[in-house]
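Researcher: Let's try something more involved. This one mixes different molecule types, so please make sure each is placed in the same coordinate frame as the others.
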Amino acid sequence: MRRLEFILRRLLTSIFVLIGVSIITFTVARIIPSNAAAMYIGPKARPEDIARVTIKLGLDKPLPVQYLIYMRDLLHGDLGTSISTKRPVLQELTGRLPATLELLFTGMFLAVLFGVPMGVLSVRSQGKPMDVLVRTVSIIGVSLPAFYLGLLLQILFFRRLDLLPLAGRFSNELRFTNPITAVTNFLLIDALIGRNWIAFKDVTYHLILPAITLALYPMGLIARMTRATMLEVMEQDYIRTARAYGIREAVVVYLYALKNALSPTLTVIGLTFAFALTGTFFVEIIYNWPGLGLFTVHSLLNIDYPAIMGITLFGSVMYVLINLAVDLLQAWIDPRISLK
Amino acid sequence: MTTIPTIAIEPEIQTRRTARHVFSVILRDPLSLISTIVIILFILVGIFAYQVAPYPLEGAGKTNVHNSLLPPSLAHPFGTDKLGRDVLSRVIVGARPALIVPIGVVLFAVLIGAPLGAIAGYKGGWFDEVIMRITDLFLAFPSLLLAMAIASALGRGIQNAAIALIVSFWPWYTRLVRGVTISLKERYFVEAAQAIGVRDSTIILRHILPNTISAILVQATVDLGTVILAMGGLAFLGLGTQPPSPDWGLMVSEGRTYILEQWWISTFPGLAIFVVVLAFNLIGDTMRDIFDPRQYR
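Model: All components are placed in one shared frame. Result:
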């Protein structure tokens, strides 16, 4: 019962946070610019266009009314029309979402796959070369800007070693030789569904560098956090008891200690998801990856205001939802949380 | 009444002691020592950029087209960019914004965040509740996304990018200082001050805020690195420094088109970001080990 109450309370807070988020994006979108209507049409605005948009956005009305109009449009999925593509912003965003999510999930998968064991390994070999190595790799990970790492990897793996493709989601000739049937728009999954092995291999090759570039920062954070929480857990009495019983160290570490260190680590994983979300912007620019990030950069370059505001809202809503998912997962793993 | 002066002095003694402790730890750990040297060099280069740069005018943006895209050599150790400007000079002059902007951003974030956190933690009640919910909201945004939106609403340029970063960084300090304040509130020297009727504002200013400095310093050190990264990111997206002013992130972005052949244009400014951020992170780690702000959480 306690757990159900926790879930309901957590859902309710998320709704409040989302309302707050909408107030902030509303402020940025409508109040900060001196002439919001002109920003929404772009540089070639004619006076009659500005007048029309002023009425459509309700900019001539008092602020609370403006906010209600803003919310009404949002709830109808109306994020405005992109200045540069002339298409609804929401359509532009959802169309590009699968590419970004494929990159984001692969990157985060790598980050967790390597980050957590790295943290544990470092605790097991505290003070030894392995520990130093893990700490060095993780601190380099959180200090290297993604946009720089991406370039370095391109020089190394494309220019010097000629092992991996430079950019894009797949090779151009694939369109003609082994086209992928779009089902989910996650190319890896689509290639799998269609048993299109050549395409699968090609897509994987294209995904490696962007995913590594994206993964390094969250991996560093996760490894550092796992290490810190593991060190704390290892000092607790029940670990000493387990050791006193003569249970093998590996069992103590991986079965007993890791279980309790997992919950704070999950919080960090949730947080790093957000970093990775903005990280995809840089990775997508570097690797010409046709997702949200590339669209963001083009919008920023063209001062495509409706698009930029749409992305901000979209991104923060995604962030709130990711955090909600992490919290619920955490409550499921660690019952102590829902009892607080 | 004689005990009161010692109570007031107590935090100062503590700061002096820990300052010496910090230095001794840094001197003993080779990585921390190297990082400190890197940071001092970075500060000196930032201050004396125009005196140190071999071609100060090119560093500031003067073009020299017949020297376009020269590889690294003795005359140009880091090579030249598309407009023939010496990359080394650009990196050196670019240390200025990389030094000044993050210090300004963190300073303002502390000035806004710390007092709010101290008042919220000390007063509690509805004020605390309101401030905490507001920080919750700001922390509900990925900071770079918020900075990006604000920077594009205000218009491009380094000042607006800095404002955008302040807006997304202050809540962290509010939370940090609030946490420390709540634990300090229970301590005898605060209770003693309350008992003799010292005004709340004086208690916060004289007794609470000075004791939050070590926690703030640790956070600020790490944040300096984070802000340099974020500045670089915003500049890379075209929202920070505008050309022809030198900026490390912008230089990496400008050199991107030439990365496969003229690798030096992007590589050196990127390396500068990496080395400085790494130094701040290493020092931040050492300081965290010394002060362990976790104890306040």
